[in-house]
Design goal:
Chain lengths: 207, 207
DNA sequence: GTCTATAATGGGATAGAC
DNA sequence: GTCTATCCCATTATAGAC
Protein backbone atom coordinates (compact mmCIF):
# COMPACT_ATOMS: atom_id res chain seq x y z
CA UNK A 1 0.00 0.00 0.00
CA UNK A 2 1.30 3.43 -0.90
CA UNK A 3 0.78 6.49 1.33
CA UNK A 4 -2.30 7.64 -0.57
CA UNK A 5 -3.95 4.25 -0.23
CA UNK A 6 -3.17 4.21 3.48
CA UNK A 7 -4.75 7.62 3.96
CA UNK A 8 -7.86 6.58 2.04
CA UNK A 9 -8.22 3.43 4.08
CA UNK A 10 -8.07 5.43 7.31
CA UNK A 11 -10.61 7.92 6.00
CA UNK A 12 -13.09 5.20 5.07
CA UNK A 13 -12.73 3.74 8.58
CA UNK A 14 -13.45 7.20 10.02
CA UNK A 15 -10.11 7.19 11.82
CA UNK A 16 -8.99 10.40 10.16
CA UNK A 17 -11.09 13.17 8.58
CA UNK A 18 -11.30 13.62 4.85
CA UNK A 19 -9.07 16.64 4.15
CA UNK A 20 -11.64 17.84 1.63
CA UNK A 21 -14.50 17.85 4.11
CA UNK A 22 -15.36 20.71 6.46
CA UNK A 23 -13.86 19.06 9.50
CA UNK A 24 -10.70 17.96 7.73
CA UNK A 25 -10.09 21.39 6.29
CA UNK A 26 -10.48 23.02 9.67
CA UNK A 27 -8.05 20.59 11.28
CA UNK A 28 -5.50 21.26 8.58
CA UNK A 29 -5.75 25.02 9.05
CA UNK A 30 -5.67 24.58 12.81
CA UNK A 31 -2.44 22.60 12.59
CA UNK A 32 -0.87 25.35 10.53
CA UNK A 33 -1.98 28.11 12.87
CA UNK A 34 -1.03 26.22 16.03
CA UNK A 35 2.43 25.57 14.63
CA UNK A 36 2.97 29.12 13.44
CA UNK A 37 1.57 31.04 16.40
CA UNK A 38 1.22 28.44 19.11
CA UNK A 39 -2.08 27.12 20.46
CA UNK A 40 -2.58 29.84 23.09
CA UNK A 41 -1.94 32.69 20.71
CA UNK A 42 -4.28 31.29 18.09
CA UNK A 43 -7.80 32.55 18.72
CA UNK A 44 -11.05 30.89 17.72
CA UNK A 45 -11.52 33.90 15.46
CA UNK A 46 -8.26 33.01 13.68
CA UNK A 47 -9.43 29.44 13.27
CA UNK A 48 -12.83 30.44 11.94
CA UNK A 49 -11.38 33.02 9.55
CA UNK A 50 -8.99 30.43 8.14
CA UNK A 51 -11.92 28.37 6.86
CA UNK A 52 -14.11 31.38 6.04
CA UNK A 53 -16.73 31.22 8.77
CA UNK A 54 -17.55 33.27 11.88
CA UNK A 55 -16.14 32.30 15.25
CA UNK A 56 -19.53 31.37 16.67
CA UNK A 57 -20.04 28.79 13.94
CA UNK A 58 -16.96 26.86 15.03
CA UNK A 59 -18.77 25.62 18.08
CA UNK A 60 -21.22 23.77 15.94
CA UNK A 61 -18.35 21.43 14.95
CA UNK A 62 -16.32 21.33 18.17
CA UNK A 63 -17.46 21.93 21.70
CA UNK A 64 -14.25 23.64 22.84
CA UNK A 65 -11.07 25.02 21.39
CA UNK A 66 -9.09 22.30 23.12
CA UNK A 67 -11.12 19.63 21.35
CA UNK A 68 -9.68 20.94 18.12
CA UNK A 69 -6.12 20.60 19.40
CA UNK A 70 -6.80 17.07 20.54
CA UNK A 71 -8.33 16.09 17.21
CA UNK A 72 -5.26 17.40 15.37
CA UNK A 73 -3.01 15.26 17.54
CA UNK A 74 -5.09 12.08 17.51
CA UNK A 75 -5.56 12.01 13.75
CA UNK A 76 -1.89 12.75 13.17
CA UNK A 77 -0.76 9.88 15.32
CA UNK A 78 -3.18 7.48 13.66
CA UNK A 79 -1.96 8.39 10.20
CA UNK A 80 1.71 8.26 11.07
CA UNK A 81 1.48 4.95 12.89
CA UNK A 82 0.02 3.43 9.75
CA UNK A 83 2.63 5.03 7.50
CA UNK A 84 5.48 3.92 9.73
CA UNK A 85 4.23 0.37 9.97
CA UNK A 86 4.04 0.17 6.19
CA UNK A 87 7.51 1.65 5.71
CA UNK A 88 8.99 -0.85 8.12
CA UNK A 89 7.24 -3.86 6.67
CA UNK A 90 8.82 -3.10 3.31
CA UNK A 91 12.36 -3.38 4.73
CA UNK A 92 14.27 -6.64 5.17
CA UNK A 93 17.26 -6.15 7.49
CA UNK A 94 17.32 -4.42 10.88
CA UNK A 95 19.51 -1.71 9.47
CA UNK A 96 17.06 -1.12 6.64
CA UNK A 97 14.14 -1.13 9.05
CA UNK A 98 15.82 1.55 11.11
CA UNK A 99 16.51 3.57 8.00
CA UNK A 100 12.87 3.18 6.97
CA UNK A 101 11.69 4.40 10.37
CA UNK A 102 14.02 7.40 10.31
CA UNK A 103 12.94 8.20 6.77
CA UNK A 104 9.27 7.88 7.66
CA UNK A 105 9.54 10.05 10.75
CA UNK A 106 11.45 12.73 8.85
CA UNK A 107 8.76 12.58 6.20
CA UNK A 108 6.04 12.95 8.85
CA UNK A 109 7.82 15.85 10.47
CA UNK A 110 8.78 17.71 7.33
CA UNK A 111 6.19 16.60 4.77
CA UNK A 112 2.43 16.92 4.47
CA UNK A 113 1.75 16.20 8.11
CA UNK A 114 4.66 18.33 9.31
CA UNK A 115 2.53 21.09 10.73
CA UNK A 116 0.51 18.65 12.80
CA UNK A 117 3.63 16.82 13.96
CA UNK A 118 5.15 20.07 15.17
CA UNK A 119 1.96 20.73 17.11
CA UNK A 120 2.25 17.30 18.68
CA UNK A 121 5.72 18.13 19.94
CA UNK A 122 5.46 21.76 20.90
CA UNK A 123 1.86 22.11 22.08
CA UNK A 124 1.79 19.05 24.27
CA UNK A 125 1.38 21.01 27.49
CA UNK A 126 -1.62 22.89 26.14
CA UNK A 127 -3.56 19.65 26.20
CA UNK A 128 -5.50 18.88 29.37
CA UNK A 129 -4.11 16.02 31.44
CA UNK A 130 -7.02 13.75 30.58
CA UNK A 131 -6.47 14.28 26.87
CA UNK A 132 -2.73 13.75 27.27
CA UNK A 133 -3.36 10.32 28.73
CA UNK A 134 -5.54 9.30 25.78
CA UNK A 135 -3.05 10.51 23.22
CA UNK A 136 -0.15 8.83 25.01
CA UNK A 137 -1.79 5.43 24.59
CA UNK A 138 -1.86 5.87 20.84
CA UNK A 139 1.78 6.90 20.84
CA UNK A 140 2.89 3.77 22.61
CA UNK A 141 1.90 1.67 19.64
CA UNK A 142 4.38 3.17 17.32
CA UNK A 143 7.08 3.63 19.89
CA UNK A 144 7.16 -0.16 20.10
CA UNK A 145 8.04 -0.37 16.41
CA UNK A 146 11.17 1.63 17.13
CA UNK A 147 12.18 -0.25 20.24
CA UNK A 148 11.89 -3.65 18.55
CA UNK A 149 14.05 -2.53 15.66
CA UNK A 150 16.69 -0.92 17.84
CA UNK A 151 16.85 -3.97 20.09
CA UNK A 152 17.49 -6.19 17.06
CA UNK A 153 20.41 -3.98 16.04
CA UNK A 154 21.72 -4.07 19.56
CA UNK A 155 21.58 -7.88 19.56
CA UNK A 156 23.51 -7.88 16.29
CA UNK A 157 26.20 -5.73 17.92
CA UNK A 158 25.58 -2.87 15.48
CA UNK A 159 24.39 -0.47 18.16
CA UNK A 160 26.48 0.35 21.23
CA UNK A 161 23.90 2.27 23.25
CA UNK A 162 20.67 1.35 25.03
CA UNK A 163 17.72 1.15 22.59
CA UNK A 164 15.48 3.03 24.98
CA UNK A 165 17.85 5.96 25.26
CA UNK A 166 18.59 5.96 21.55
CA UNK A 167 14.91 6.13 20.68
CA UNK A 168 14.44 9.11 22.92
CA UNK A 169 17.49 10.84 21.52
CA UNK A 170 16.19 10.22 18.03
CA UNK A 171 12.75 11.54 18.95
CA UNK A 172 14.34 14.81 19.94
CA UNK A 173 16.77 14.97 17.05
CA UNK A 174 14.20 14.18 14.36
CA UNK A 175 11.44 16.39 15.81
CA UNK A 176 13.88 19.25 16.08
CA UNK A 177 14.40 19.20 12.31
CA UNK A 178 11.13 21.14 11.93
CA UNK A 179 12.92 24.14 13.37
CA UNK A 180 15.74 24.24 10.85
CA UNK A 181 15.37 21.85 7.92
CA UNK A 182 14.14 23.60 4.78
CA UNK A 183 14.24 21.15 1.86
CA UNK A 184 12.86 23.72 -0.56
CA UNK A 185 15.95 25.88 -0.16
CA UNK A 186 18.01 23.35 -2.08
CA UNK A 187 20.76 21.57 -0.25
CA UNK A 188 19.78 18.44 1.58
CA UNK A 189 17.01 16.15 0.31
CA UNK A 190 14.94 14.06 2.69
CA UNK A 191 16.96 11.01 1.70
CA UNK A 192 20.13 12.97 2.24
CA UNK A 193 19.00 13.97 5.70
CA UNK A 194 18.13 10.34 6.44
CA UNK A 195 21.63 9.29 5.35
CA UNK A 196 23.16 11.96 7.59
CA UNK A 197 21.14 10.70 10.54
CA UNK A 198 22.29 7.16 9.94
CA UNK A 199 25.87 8.34 9.43
CA UNK A 200 25.78 10.13 12.78
CA UNK A 201 25.13 6.73 14.33
CA UNK A 202 27.98 5.18 12.41
CA UNK A 203 25.94 3.58 9.61
CA UNK A 204 27.62 4.46 6.35
CA UNK A 205 25.29 4.87 3.33
CA UNK A 206 25.08 1.98 0.86
CA UNK A 207 26.81 2.49 -2.44
CA UNK B 1 37.44 27.98 37.57
CA UNK B 2 34.66 25.82 38.94
CA UNK B 3 30.99 26.44 38.14
CA UNK B 4 30.39 28.45 41.31
CA UNK B 5 33.30 30.74 40.58
CA UNK B 6 32.06 31.24 37.02
CA UNK B 7 28.60 32.19 38.28
CA UNK B 8 30.05 34.65 40.78
CA UNK B 9 32.23 36.24 38.14
CA UNK B 10 29.21 36.79 35.89
CA UNK B 11 27.20 38.24 38.76
CA UNK B 12 29.89 40.74 39.64
CA UNK B 13 30.02 41.82 36.00
CA UNK B 14 26.23 42.30 36.06
CA UNK B 15 25.82 39.79 33.25
CA UNK B 16 23.50 37.61 35.31
CA UNK B 17 21.35 38.52 38.32
CA UNK B 18 22.25 37.41 41.81
CA UNK B 19 19.83 34.55 42.54
CA UNK B 20 19.45 35.90 46.08
CA UNK B 21 18.38 39.36 44.95
CA UNK B 22 14.80 40.36 44.13
CA UNK B 23 15.36 40.29 40.39
CA UNK B 24 17.21 36.98 40.42
CA UNK B 25 14.55 35.29 42.53
CA UNK B 26 11.80 36.45 40.22
CA UNK B 27 13.66 35.18 37.15
CA UNK B 28 14.14 31.80 38.79
CA UNK B 29 10.44 31.49 39.64
CA UNK B 30 9.51 32.74 36.18
CA UNK B 31 11.65 30.04 34.57
CA UNK B 32 9.93 27.39 36.66
CA UNK B 33 6.44 28.67 35.87
CA UNK B 34 7.16 29.16 32.17
CA UNK B 35 8.47 25.62 31.92
CA UNK B 36 5.60 24.07 33.85
CA UNK B 37 2.67 25.98 32.37
CA UNK B 38 4.10 27.67 29.32
CA UNK B 39 4.64 31.40 28.93
CA UNK B 40 1.17 32.21 27.66
CA UNK B 41 -0.61 30.31 30.40
CA UNK B 42 1.45 31.93 33.11
CA UNK B 43 -0.17 35.17 34.23
CA UNK B 44 1.54 38.18 35.75
CA UNK B 45 -0.50 37.36 38.83
CA UNK B 46 1.14 33.90 38.94
CA UNK B 47 4.57 35.48 38.64
CA UNK B 48 3.90 38.01 41.37
CA UNK B 49 2.45 35.41 43.71
CA UNK B 50 5.51 33.20 43.26
CA UNK B 51 7.69 35.88 44.84
CA UNK B 52 5.06 37.09 47.29
CA UNK B 53 4.09 40.45 45.85
CA UNK B 54 1.04 41.87 44.06
CA UNK B 55 0.83 41.86 40.29
CA UNK B 56 1.03 45.62 40.01
CA UNK B 57 4.36 45.62 41.79
CA UNK B 58 5.95 43.48 39.10
CA UNK B 59 5.93 46.40 36.71
CA UNK B 60 8.27 48.31 38.92
CA UNK B 61 10.96 45.73 37.98
CA UNK B 62 10.01 44.93 34.38
CA UNK B 63 8.11 47.03 31.89
CA UNK B 64 6.30 44.12 30.26
CA UNK B 65 5.73 40.43 30.79
CA UNK B 66 7.76 39.66 27.69
CA UNK B 67 10.76 41.47 29.15
CA UNK B 68 10.78 38.83 31.89
CA UNK B 69 10.85 36.03 29.34
CA UNK B 70 13.69 37.68 27.50
CA UNK B 71 15.71 38.20 30.67
CA UNK B 72 15.34 34.52 31.55
CA UNK B 73 16.69 33.56 28.16
CA UNK B 74 19.53 36.06 27.97
CA UNK B 75 20.92 35.29 31.40
CA UNK B 76 20.67 31.56 30.79
CA UNK B 77 22.65 31.77 27.57
CA UNK B 78 25.32 33.92 29.17
CA UNK B 79 25.81 31.49 32.02
CA UNK B 80 25.83 28.41 29.85
CA UNK B 81 28.23 29.84 27.32
CA UNK B 82 30.71 30.47 30.11
CA UNK B 83 30.19 27.00 31.59
CA UNK B 84 30.59 25.31 28.23
CA UNK B 85 33.71 27.23 27.36
CA UNK B 86 35.27 26.20 30.67
CA UNK B 87 34.31 22.55 30.23
CA UNK B 88 35.83 22.46 26.79
CA UNK B 89 39.06 24.18 27.75
CA UNK B 90 39.68 21.47 30.32
CA UNK B 91 39.64 18.71 27.65
CA UNK B 92 42.62 17.71 25.50
CA UNK B 93 41.50 15.61 22.53
CA UNK B 94 38.65 16.33 20.11
CA UNK B 95 36.79 13.32 21.40
CA UNK B 96 37.12 14.54 24.97
CA UNK B 97 36.08 18.04 23.96
CA UNK B 98 32.93 16.64 22.39
CA UNK B 99 32.25 14.61 25.50
CA UNK B 100 32.76 17.72 27.64
CA UNK B 101 30.31 19.69 25.48
CA UNK B 102 27.69 16.93 25.63
CA UNK B 103 28.18 16.64 29.38
CA UNK B 104 27.92 20.40 29.87
CA UNK B 105 24.77 20.72 27.78
CA UNK B 106 23.11 17.82 29.58
CA UNK B 107 24.05 19.49 32.85
CA UNK B 108 22.57 22.79 31.66
CA UNK B 109 19.39 21.12 30.51
CA UNK B 110 18.88 18.86 33.50
CA UNK B 111 20.67 20.65 36.34
CA UNK B 112 20.22 23.97 38.11
CA UNK B 113 19.52 25.92 34.93
CA UNK B 114 17.29 23.20 33.51
CA UNK B 115 14.07 25.12 33.90
CA UNK B 116 15.46 28.11 32.09
CA UNK B 117 16.96 25.94 29.34
CA UNK B 118 13.59 24.31 28.74
CA UNK B 119 12.08 27.78 28.41
CA UNK B 120 14.74 28.65 25.85
CA UNK B 121 13.73 25.67 23.73
CA UNK B 122 9.97 25.56 24.13
CA UNK B 123 9.00 29.22 24.50
CA UNK B 124 11.06 30.57 21.65
CA UNK B 125 8.03 31.61 19.60
CA UNK B 126 6.59 33.61 22.46
CA UNK B 127 9.48 36.03 22.14
CA UNK B 128 8.93 39.00 19.83
CA UNK B 129 10.94 38.94 16.61
CA UNK B 130 13.19 41.77 17.74
CA UNK B 131 14.06 39.95 20.94
CA UNK B 132 14.65 36.73 19.05
CA UNK B 133 17.27 38.44 16.95
CA UNK B 134 19.13 39.68 20.02
CA UNK B 135 19.08 36.31 21.71
CA UNK B 136 20.19 34.55 18.54
CA UNK B 137 23.38 36.57 18.46
CA UNK B 138 24.32 35.32 21.90
CA UNK B 139 23.56 31.75 20.88
CA UNK B 140 25.90 31.91 17.90
CA UNK B 141 28.87 32.27 20.21
CA UNK B 142 28.48 28.90 21.79
CA UNK B 143 27.26 27.17 18.68
CA UNK B 144 30.69 27.90 17.24
CA UNK B 145 32.31 25.93 20.05
CA UNK B 146 30.38 22.87 18.92
CA UNK B 147 31.03 23.31 15.23
CA UNK B 148 34.79 23.67 15.70
CA UNK B 149 34.95 20.52 17.78
CA UNK B 150 32.80 18.47 15.42
CA UNK B 151 34.79 19.65 12.42
CA UNK B 152 38.02 18.50 14.09
CA UNK B 153 36.52 15.03 14.60
CA UNK B 154 35.39 14.98 11.02
CA UNK B 155 38.92 15.84 9.85
CA UNK B 156 40.24 12.98 11.98
CA UNK B 157 37.81 10.60 10.26
CA UNK B 158 36.01 9.85 13.52
CA UNK B 159 32.72 11.36 12.42
CA UNK B 160 30.95 10.27 9.22
CA UNK B 161 28.25 12.96 9.06
CA UNK B 162 28.25 16.70 8.40
CA UNK B 163 29.18 18.68 11.56
CA UNK B 164 26.43 21.17 10.91
CA UNK B 165 23.73 18.50 10.73
CA UNK B 166 25.16 16.61 13.69
CA UNK B 167 25.09 19.71 15.87
CA UNK B 168 21.46 20.30 15.04
CA UNK B 169 20.57 16.69 15.68
CA UNK B 170 22.36 16.88 19.02
CA UNK B 171 20.59 20.11 19.91
CA UNK B 172 17.27 18.34 19.51
CA UNK B 173 18.36 15.12 21.19
CA UNK B 174 19.91 16.80 24.22
CA UNK B 175 17.17 19.39 24.69
CA UNK B 176 14.56 16.68 24.49
CA UNK B 177 16.03 14.98 27.56
CA UNK B 178 14.18 17.52 29.71
CA UNK B 179 10.96 15.76 28.76
CA UNK B 180 11.97 12.30 29.95
CA UNK B 181 15.26 12.16 31.88
CA UNK B 182 14.71 11.96 35.64
CA UNK B 183 18.08 11.39 37.35
CA UNK B 184 16.51 11.39 40.80
CA UNK B 185 14.55 8.24 40.00
CA UNK B 186 17.73 6.19 40.11
CA UNK B 187 18.87 4.58 36.91
CA UNK B 188 21.02 6.67 34.66
CA UNK B 189 23.46 9.26 36.06
CA UNK B 190 24.38 12.35 34.10
CA UNK B 191 27.71 10.75 33.21
CA UNK B 192 25.89 7.59 32.21
CA UNK B 193 23.61 9.58 29.93
CA UNK B 194 26.65 11.31 28.45
CA UNK B 195 28.24 7.92 27.75
CA UNK B 196 25.04 6.72 26.09
CA UNK B 197 24.98 9.78 23.87
CA UNK B 198 28.58 9.20 22.83
CA UNK B 199 27.88 5.50 22.32
CA UNK B 200 24.97 6.32 20.03
CA UNK B 201 27.51 8.07 17.81
CA UNK B 202 29.84 5.09 17.94
CA UNK B 203 32.24 6.41 20.59
CA UNK B 204 32.73 3.61 23.10
CA UNK B 205 33.31 4.73 26.71
CA UNK B 206 36.88 4.69 28.00
CA UNK B 207 37.75 1.90 30.40
C1' DG C 1 -24.85 24.93 9.35
C1' DT C 2 -23.95 29.68 9.47
C1' DC C 3 -25.08 34.27 10.96
C1' DT C 4 -25.18 38.40 14.47
C1' DA C 5 -24.97 39.87 18.92
C1' DT C 6 -23.47 39.53 23.31
C1' DA C 7 -22.59 37.42 27.78
C1' DA C 8 -18.93 36.32 30.99
C1' DT C 9 -14.40 36.04 32.18
C1' DG C 10 -9.64 36.90 32.74
C1' DG C 11 -5.76 39.13 31.06
C1' DG C 12 -1.78 42.95 30.88
C1' DA C 13 -0.84 47.22 32.37
C1' DT C 14 -1.45 51.93 34.88
C1' DA C 15 -2.23 55.44 38.76
C1' DG C 16 -1.55 57.23 42.90
C1' DA C 17 -1.31 56.44 47.99
C1' DC C 18 1.80 54.90 51.45
C1' DG D 1 9.36 49.20 46.32
C1' DT D 2 4.92 47.57 47.37
C1' DC D 3 0.00 48.20 47.94
C1' DT D 4 -4.99 48.77 46.27
C1' DA D 5 -7.98 49.80 42.82
C1' DT D 6 -9.16 49.81 38.38
C1' DC D 7 -8.98 50.57 33.35
C1' DC D 8 -9.28 48.57 29.00
C1' DC D 9 -9.18 45.09 26.05
C1' DA D 10 -9.26 40.36 23.96
C1' DT D 11 -10.91 36.05 24.61
C1' DT D 12 -14.01 31.77 24.75
C1' DA D 13 -18.43 30.41 24.50
C1' DT D 14 -23.62 30.93 24.18
C1' DA D 15 -28.34 32.29 22.29
C1' DG D 16 -31.49 32.64 19.03
C1' DA D 17 -32.67 34.16 14.20
C1' DC D 18 -32.40 32.63 9.52
Amino acid sequence: MNPTQILNALISENLVSDPNGARGRLLKEAARLFRDKGYERTTVRDLAAAVGIQSGSLFHHFRTKEEILKAVMVETIRLNTALMQAAMDAAATSRDKLRALVRAELESVNGQTGEAMAVLVFEWRSLSEESQAEVLELRDIYEQLWLDTLQALRDEGRLLADPFVVRRMLTGALSWTVTWYRPERGGLSLDGLTDQTMAMMGFAPEH
